[in-house]
Each structure stands twice: as C-alpha cells, then as structure tokens.
C-alpha cells in the first residue's frame, strides 16, 4: 500500500533492486513465459514494481520471512529463534541494515530484537522481498550503512473499470518438522478508484527437530490481522492501513529469555499528488505501539533464584515527504522512537531493574538525489544529512549492592543526551556496453549513530539487540559515529540463455561499534556478582574495521525445460586496529538449483553448500563452525491460473549441521544439546501448501 510513495524512489533505482531468484517463485503463466528464456532473472530492468512475481512466497517451508532473504546474493540472517531473524547483508547486521515493512520502519519492542522487523510480516502474507544490491541509494532511508531491504505484504490492486471486483488470496500449509501449520487470508474489493481489504494470518508450531533430537524451545505462535483502504483519481492517491500483530509463546534458544508475547499495532497512511509538470509530491505517516513480555522460566527451566522476566515497549512515529521531478528527488524524513524495558523476579515482588528507561532515539533527515542518463551512462547521485538525537531517563533498581549503586549513580549523573550529525553521499553508475552487458560501479560514504543498547546499557547484561554471543555487555554513552567508505564494482551479463552478475565490494569502516574487553572494574564486579566470574564482560567501543567480498547470481538454461541457477555469497570481516576478525560473519555460501520446468508444474533440486567459518572473533569468544551441504527438493503445480500447490522436502538427507549464524544453546534442560554448544540446524522437513488467488 506504500507503493505510491516508493514507486518514485524504487523505479529510479531499479537496476540495483534484485527480486528473489525466479525459481523460488510461484508459477503463473506470465512468469512461466519469461522463465524459459530467462531474461527476467538478470538484475537489469527488474524492479520491485515491474516484477511479475505475483506470489514469491508461495513456496513456504518455514513461517519466517527471513528464511527467504537468504536466497538473495550477499544476504543472510542471524537466527535466534524460529521467528527471530536479524537481516545480515554483506556482513553488516541488526540496526546497520534498514529493513522496511510495507515502506515503514518497524522498531523492535524487545531490547534483544526478539521481535525483529522481519518478524512483523509472516511468510504467508509476503508479496515480495527485495534489496538494493550494492550501495543503497540515500532516498531508501536514514542510516543505510548495511543497505536497505524491502518487504511488501499482499494487498489488493486497483482494477481498470468502475465496477467493483472481489480480490483476494488464501494460503495454508503444513511442515512436518515441528508440526507447523499456517493459514493466511486477504479479501478485498477494488475498482479503478477505490480498494479496500482485510487480511489476517495464524501460525503455530511445536519444537523443531534435528537428526539428534529436539531443539528446545523452538515452538512458535503468531497471529496478525489488518485492514486498509486506498483511493486514486489519476492525480491523487491516498492510502490508509492498520495492522495488529500478536506473537505468542515462541522460543529463542540463542538468547537468555524466550518470547511470551510481542504484540501491538501499527498504522500508516500516505498521500501523493501528481502535478501538471509531471512532478510527484508524496507524504507518509506512521505510528507504532508494541509491547513485549519475555521470561527465562516458562519455555525453559531455570533455578528458582535465577527466574526473571522482562516487560518492554516501544512507541514510534514516522513522517516522510518527498518531491520528484525530472530525475530529481528531494525529501525530508523524520522518526521518533521511545523505548522502555524493566526486569522482574517472579519470586520476589520487590525486585526490579530499569534496564532501559524512557529511551529516546529521534532522527530528522533531509536528502536530495539525482538520476541522470547520458548516452550509455546512468548516474545516481545522492546526498543525505541526518540529525540523530538520543537521550535516556534516569534508572533505578531494587538492587542495593554497592557496585550496582555505583553504576546507577554514574549513569544517572552522566550527560546522557547525545546528538550526532550524519552525512551520507552516494554515487552509483552503470555503463551499458551492449544490450547484454552492463558495467556497474559505485562509491559511497555512509554513517550510523550508536543504537540505544550500545549507548545506554548501564548494567552488564545481555540485552544487545540480539548479538547472542552469550557475553555481558556494558554500554558507552560517548560512542562516536560509525563512518563507512564503500566501493562497489561489478557487471551484469544477461543473454536469453544465461545470466551472470558478480559484484565485488569493499567497506572501510572507521569507529565501527562493537564489544571490546571491559575496562570498567565496577561493571566487572557487578557481572561477577550476578552471572559468575567466568562470564565475559565486553564494553561497547569504537574500533576500525573492513569488510570485503563478492556475491553473484547466475542462471543457465541447459535446455528449454532444464535450468540451473544459483547464488554465491562471500564476505570477510576484519578489524583494522587489531588482528581479530569481526563477529558473526556469514561463511561462504552457495545455492545451486536444478529445475525441470513444464507449463503448469516444476520440480527443483537445490544444494545449499556452506563452507566452514574459521575467521571468528576471539574477543567475543566466538566458536568456529564446519562446512556442510544440505539438499532440498521442491515441487510446484499450478492446475489453474489461480491455484498453486507446493510441496517439498528440506534437508532431504537429514544432515546434521551447525549454522554459523544460529547462535549457541542457552538451555540447561535440553537432553540433546549441551549448554553452550552451537545450536544445530533443522533436520529433515517435508512440507506442503496451497495458495489460491482470486
Ligand atoms: Cu525479548
């Protein structure tokens, strides 16, 4: 529904916006026709708007949208639970990646990112998932150091006549591993001026299994309901949407607690006007109110004395205004978020800790961007200036131990208000050598301000936006701005029979924020007191880093019916100030799919090959992982234009493996996985689903 606002922005940058690989997508005859001679697989000319991929989410083997993100070159996810996936792009993750859900920035209510932005859109409600490959344009958002990812939910479309038509989609499915079930529905009416819809989804699953037993706790439960209205009359467009989401008891075995619930509402609206000169003025507004409860004693066992739960919330507002004309776009963006988190002890009603109290993180931003085509050259140049203003309220706690009181007083007496100015500069170019070959180059400077956790974690705890390294962290109010210098080089070769689009990149990051050995002796004392002396304490600091690598997607039609395609992603993350490596960097990963394609059905055999990761962060005490290969089988049958039936088996040979980005087991009461060991990847899972559109 936010298409109106984003159309201007996305279309301008369509060259870098990459859809899901075609073979992952549902079949319909439009796709089918292009599928056989493959041109749409190339990145050129494919934009989120123009993409004919009606139901990319029609192959749903797990409920999580993040799992689909892994199919894009350079992208991966840090997984902390079945619904808790943190987007990683080229080694940068969490707040460094700008994830927009239907054009809106969603704030996690939980300080450990249990309710990540991607968890707000179930796979069954997903229409499309895309990313700006390479350097994200400044118009795509504030703080895009790690790129911009766009997820759009299914909605209605304006029809051509005045008569109202009924539109909708129903999807349902089952996955054997974890006994997972989902259903989603979209129902609406539309004519050429009005469209109206209601939508909802329900999912449920039990604990997941691997070849050696159960992964506890990995049950999940989520419901969503929403509705929207849109109007257009040729020159003006108006949209309004409301969403409610309710994630119920859902495990996060890589984190110290599990989700008891994460629920709330978000609302968004947009208005755009096209002027006689062709200029388009777009505005958007959004509001979010989410609350979250987590505990370490409901889905997992905890000693009575160690039982804790936390109640957290976030409220945020967003505003955007942009004007586009003849290749120029200028705009302003602003958003404000307010966070709270308190920790309680169910056995002692007097116990409380303000983990985060009245945290404010507000961003005000202005940008200008120009797209220009000169003969074979295409340029996109952008400049964005942002002001990030952060503050935190005073904290209190029932804990009276002297070192805790000392930390509290130091925090409360500090100047907690921090304002930063960020400047982003982007130049992306494409040089068309021939109709089948483009050269791509980009250069940028991007900045990010510290997250509220990095800045305001006053007590040594693990509430670190989902780092899940098992270490306690202490915040650092005075953190400097992260500054990245980015270079991108690549080409895009696309013929009717084969495509190949490799990109290499280099990020030179000054003042990269991460945990370094703790120098605060009071924090060390508190951590030893609360979590034992063996627990590592890290303090957030600015260091120097670099990330570089290569990612590519490719396809090859062996015959009109047999096709091969794949994605390769490699990134290396290193410190520049020490010899250490960066934490939680995706290992070299390749996906290769062999498909047999007929008019109304397709069968695919996919190999997911992941190399070992030996380049790990010593300072985080990160464990290495071995390489592995997992094979997946999928099939897709379209008996009529509107019905798609899918089935498949993931991890066909029930291979046991450890996902390097999957975290460590935090559960003491799991007979099948030792505490502190890496969490195993999912075992074999057969699944089936149906999607019906009208
Ligand atoms: Cu949480």
CATH class value: Mainly Beta
Shape, please? Answer: globular
Low-confidence stretches: 1-57
User: Helical region count?
Assistant: 6
What is the terminal separation in angstroms? 18 Å
Estimate the mean pLDDT confidence. 91
Can you offer a commentary on this structure?
This protein has one domain: Maltoporin, Chain A, CATH 2.40.170.20. Helices cover 7% and strands 51% of the residues. The chain contains six helices and 33 strands. The protein has helices at residues 3-12, 29-37, 66-69, 402-413, 452-456, 521-531, and strands at 17-18, 75-79, 85-89, 92-93, 98-101, 104-105, 126-132, 148-153, 165-175, 180-190, 194-205, 208-210, 213-215, 220-232, 236-247, 258-274, 280-295, 309-325, 328-345, 348-374, 377-391, 418-434, 437-448, 472-474, 482-494, 498-517, 537-557, 562-575, 589-597, 601-610, 628-640, 643-650, 685-693. It has a 22-stranded antiparallel β-barrel. Strands 1-7-8-5-6 form a five-stranded mixed sheet, with no helix packed on it. Helix 4 (402-413) packs across helix 6 (521-531). It is globular. The structure holds copper (II) ion (CU). Copper (II) ion (CU) binds at residues 110, 112, 114, 257, 292, 294.
């Amino acid at each position: 529904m936010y298409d109106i606002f984003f159309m201007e922005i996305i279309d301008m940058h369509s060259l870098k916006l990459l859809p899901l690989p075609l073979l992952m997508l549902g079949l319909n005859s439009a796709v089918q026709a292009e599928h056989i001679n493959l041109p749409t697989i190339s990145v050129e000319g494919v934009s989120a708007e123009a993409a004919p991929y009606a139901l990319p989410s029609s192959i749903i083997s797990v409920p999580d949208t993040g799992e689909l993100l892994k199919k894009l070159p350079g992208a991966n996810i840090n997984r902390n639970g079945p619904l808790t996936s943190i987007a990683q792009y080229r080694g940068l993750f969490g707040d460094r990646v700008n994830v927009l859900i239907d054009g809106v920035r969603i704030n996690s209510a939980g300080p450990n990112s249990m309710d990540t932005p991607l968890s707000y859109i179930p796979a069954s409600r997903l229409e499309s998932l895309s990313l700006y490959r390479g350097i994200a344009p400044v118009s795509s958002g504030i703080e895009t150091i790690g790129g911009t990812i766009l997820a759009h939910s299914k909605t209605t479309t304006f029809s051509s006549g005045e008569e109202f038509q009924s539109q909708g989609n129903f999807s349902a499915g089952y996955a054997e591993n974890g006994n997972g079930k989902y259903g989603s529905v979209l129902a609406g009416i539309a004519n050429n001026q009005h469209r109206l819809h209601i939508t909802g989804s329900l999912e449920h699953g039990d604990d997941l299994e691997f070849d050696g037993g159960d992964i506890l706790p990995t049950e999940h439960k989520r419901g969503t309901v929403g509705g929207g209205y849109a109007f257009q009359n040729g020159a003006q467009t108006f949209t309004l949407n409301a969403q409610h989401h309710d994630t119920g008891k859902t495990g996060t075995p890589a984190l110290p607690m599990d989700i008891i619930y994460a629920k709330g509402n978000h609302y968004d609206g947009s208005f755009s006007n096209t002027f006689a000169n062709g200029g388009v003025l777009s505005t958007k507004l959004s509001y979010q109110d989410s609350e979250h409860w987590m505990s370490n004693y409901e889905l997992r066992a905890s000693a009575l004395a160690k039982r804790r739960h936390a109640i957290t919330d976030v409220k945020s507002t967003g505003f955007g205004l942009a004007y586009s004309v003849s290749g120029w776009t200028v705009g302003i963006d602003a958003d404000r978020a307010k966070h709270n988190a308190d920790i309680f002890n169910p056995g002692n009603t007097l116990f409380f800790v303000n983990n985060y109290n009245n945290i404010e993180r507000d961003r005000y931003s202005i940008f200008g961007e120009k797209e220009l085509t000169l003969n074979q050259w295409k340029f996109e140049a952008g400049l964005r200036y942002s002001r990030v203003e952060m503050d935190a309220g005073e904290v209190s706690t029932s804990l009276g131990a002297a070192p805790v009181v000392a930390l509290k007083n130091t925090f409360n007496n500090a100047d907690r208000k921090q304002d930063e100015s960020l400047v982003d500069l982007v130049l992306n170019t494409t040089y068309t050598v021939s109709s089948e070959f483009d050269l791509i180059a980009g250069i940028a400077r991007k900045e990010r301000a510290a997250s509220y956790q990095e800045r305001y974690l006053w007590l040594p705890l693990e509430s670190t936006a989902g780092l899940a390294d098992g270490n306690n962290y202490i915040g650092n109010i005075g953190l400097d701005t992260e500054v990245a210098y980015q270079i991108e080089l690549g080409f895009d070769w696309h013929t009717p029979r084969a495509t190949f689009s490799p990109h290499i990149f280099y990020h030179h990051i000054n003042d990269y924020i991460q945990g370094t050995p703790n120098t605060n002796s009071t924090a060390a004392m508190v951590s030893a007191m609360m979590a034992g002396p063996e627990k590592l304490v890290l303090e957030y600091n600015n260091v120097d880093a670099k990330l570089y690598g290569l990612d590519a997607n490719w396809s090859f039609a062996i015959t009109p019916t047999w096709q091969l395609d794949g994605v390769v992603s490699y990134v290396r993350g290193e410190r520049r100030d020490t010899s250490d490596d960066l934490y939680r960097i995706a290992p070299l990963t390749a996906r290769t799919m062999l498909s047999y394609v007929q008019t109304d059905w397709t069968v695919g055999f996919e190999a997911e090959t992941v190399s070992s990761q030996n380049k790990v962060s010593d300072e985080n005490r990160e464990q290495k992982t071995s390489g592995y290969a997992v094979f997946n089988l999928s099939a897709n049958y379209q008996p009529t234009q509107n019905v798609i039936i899918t089935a498949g088996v993931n991890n066909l040979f029930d291979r046991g493996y450890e996902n390097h980005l999957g975290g460590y087991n935090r559960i003491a009461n799991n007979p099948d996985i030792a505490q502190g060991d890496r969490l195993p990847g999912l075992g074999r899972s057969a699944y089936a689903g149906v999607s019906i559109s009208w």
